[in-house]
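User: I'm curious what two different proteins look like when written out as structure tokens. Can you demonstrate?

Assistant: Sure. I'll show them one after the other, since each token string lines up with its own sequence. Here's the first protein:
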Amino acid sequence: MVTEKPLETIELATGERPELAIIWLHGLGADGHDFEPIVPELGLSFGTRFIFPHAPVRAVTVNGGLRMRAWYDIFGWGESVAEDAEGIRASAAAVGRLIERELARGRESSRIVLAGFSQGGAVALHAGLREARALGGVLALSTYLPLAPMLAAERTPANAAVPILMAHGTADPVIPLRLADASRRTLEEQGYAVDWRTYPMGHAVCAAEIRDIGAWLTAVAGR
């Protein structure tokens, strides 16, 4: 179970006066170091603060109870399997505290982007669409929309028009493309404008995707 202890983070800043803060959540079993190498590959021409938090260590049911870094438990595979609502909400609250920290540093909420891969992307979507303050964007990689039936009742007007980039591999064996595409359709049905990209890859990132992420972040910074 997740406590309210602040998440441990890795921070990288490019430039003396970062224009954006990006809170980037890793996938199941990884840690905050996972996406550090992507920073110079994005080709950003403006200063950015990257915050890479480490998920708490917890037992993951689908992996035989093995303890690993995870944003929430996974009880099993398949669309009919129950979701760990408590774990998802706890991690979203922890992300909210990171947003609060950036605000305390003098950052406007519109200059904060939530990003994540796989499980981290699911938490980024969940937290971003429920955040009471308008964010700069939500970047969701190789992921899906968790607790989708609850979004309509829990979404906030502040982020009804938040820029969303969803990117997915056409051969993803972990989170099938159809599941991600169903999440995209759910978002669009509720009025969100989703920039949807697919790439010929599995559960991973690729060079073309990284270039597209860099271009999207540049557009967000210019809003």
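Here's a second, unrelated protein for contrast:
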Amino acid sequence: MGNAREARFSQRRRGSLRISCEAMHVDSTEMLKELRIDRSREAEPAGRGVWIAVALAVAALVGAGAWFAFGRMPSYTVRTALAQPLAAQAASTAVLDASGYVTARRQATVSSKVTGRVVEVQIEEGQRVEADQVLARLDATDARAQFDLARAEHDAARAQLADLRVQLAQADRDQRRQEDLVAKKLTSTQAGEDARTRVASLKARLAAQEGQVAVQQRGVEVARVALDNTVVKAPFAGVITVKAAQPGEIVSPMSAGGGYTRTGIGTIVDMDSLEIEVEVNEAYIGRVKAGQPVEAVLNAYPDWKIPAEVIAIIPAADRSKATVKVRIGIKAKDARIVPDMGARVAFLEDRSAPAETRALPGVLVPASAIQSVGDANRVFVFVDGKAQARAVKLGQSFADQRQVLDGVKAGERVVLQPPEGMIDGARLVRDDAK
């Protein structure tokens, strides 16, 4: 019995120990599972975060680029003008070519009328002057002294004239009294005759003094002219091309004193009188007529064709050259045309002759829209509120317009007087109301 009870007790004990061990194993397993890191669940949020960070960085870069492109791009308020197509014109044929120079029909070397020392010069080369404008002044000390003396002598002569008039009035009264006394036989006839003689004498002296006053007046006028001659004035409106004298030098209307005396103050040219003078071979002079249209080109501006016409054929030939001079009037006045410039002219067919009509290539744009960049030229075209820089090829000049052969199309808007620093792509705001 005792053995059997011990056997059952021992069996129950082993069973409880096995259950305890199993429970402990289960608890340990659960605890280990809780401590284990789930890599599959961790990897998914980590990858998603990287992509979110990359997207945010790209968005920031795009935003910064947009801000740099649009926020920092300068904006300009500009005026624009349409590029105009060139109108068709008659194609004239040149019948003769010649070369010559620009000359001025009205040109003068201005000098003083008297010899004197220059104290002031009021001109510079290139200065525009008007008629009667003061160009220089000479030392007027002597001339002013002569003028003051002449005026003083004139005043003295007038004073003497006034005194004689007073004496004559008194002599007239004395004569009337003497005549009354003679009539009443209260005085001698001799006294009456003396009174009449005195009146006649004073009248003669008065007439002589009036003549003297007139002479003195002329003397004052002569002295005034001499004083005015110390001021050199412009004889007509024009441009100063030469400044020949300086303060302190002696000028004279005639050459004197060797190289120490100037004969002029400066040279003035009437720019409105400029024309071209060419020499035509006498064998071809028959092709030239007065009023004939001419196309002139200056050597300094070979792309600028200037409209002109024949003024006259000078009726004299140069025997040594076998040429005849022809005067050509310039129709387009421009500051670029100056005296002594070389020019080439083409005598065109008579206006009455029919001419073939042709269209000129390119478009016309204002000259203020063209910028020079080194040896090239460019314009800024207004396109969708932005500046588009384009290189252009230029042609002829037409007053304040330029012919653009390539780079701009008719109807496009070009920016006038592009602001300094404008770049391609700059934002623009049109203000064509000014």
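A detail about the second structure: The radius of gyration is 54 Å.
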